[in-house]
Amino acid sequence: MENLDYVLDVNLKSVIHLTELAIPHLEKTKGNIVSVSSIGSQKTNTSVPFYCIAKAALDHFARNYAAILAPKGIRINNLNPGGTTTAFMSRHGIPQEVIEKAIKNYDIPLGRWAAPSEMGEFILFMASEKASYMTGQCINVDGGSLIHSPAIKFD
């Protein structure tokens, strides 16, 4: 339960708290919020179930608060990245050789992990006026990971 509390604090409650603190300013400026969730919010992962649960809750938070904040002119959306080359795993103490093996074995239809700059471009778009009619959305940028499922082989 201690691990669950920590994961919820970092991945969900912090975003809710910061959103509440920012609402008065965002209402004045008609600003918007883009949170970083994960495709883990939409698929199970037995290695990190609490992370996936927290990210699923973050997606639902974005949808709920988008409905609450829209009348105030505030938009809220989530970016849901797939495999992206960051220090996420090494920062959690996973050895480099394990990371390399995991990346190699993680089957992404487009055949590669994303660069952080690719995710940054989506965040910039979602925060821009070009996305002024978008709120309550959880946008998957995952190289096709969520559409991928192994096919039944018929000989």
From TrEMBL:
Q: Which Pfam families match?
A: adh_short_C2
Respond yes or no to whether keyword Oxidoreductase is given for this record. Answer: yes
The molecular function terms in GO held by this entry are: oxidoreductase activity
Q: Which domain of life is it from?
A: Eukaryota
InterPro entries for the chain: NAD(P)-bd_dom_sf, Sc_DH/Rdtase_CS, SDR_fam
Task: Cite the entry's keywords alphabetically.
Answer: Oxidoreductase
Q: Which Gene3D superfamilies match?
A: NAD(P)-binding Rossmann-like Domain (3.40.50.720)
Question: What's the name of the protein?
Answer: Uncharacterized protein
Q: Which organism is it from?
A: Panagrolaimus superbus
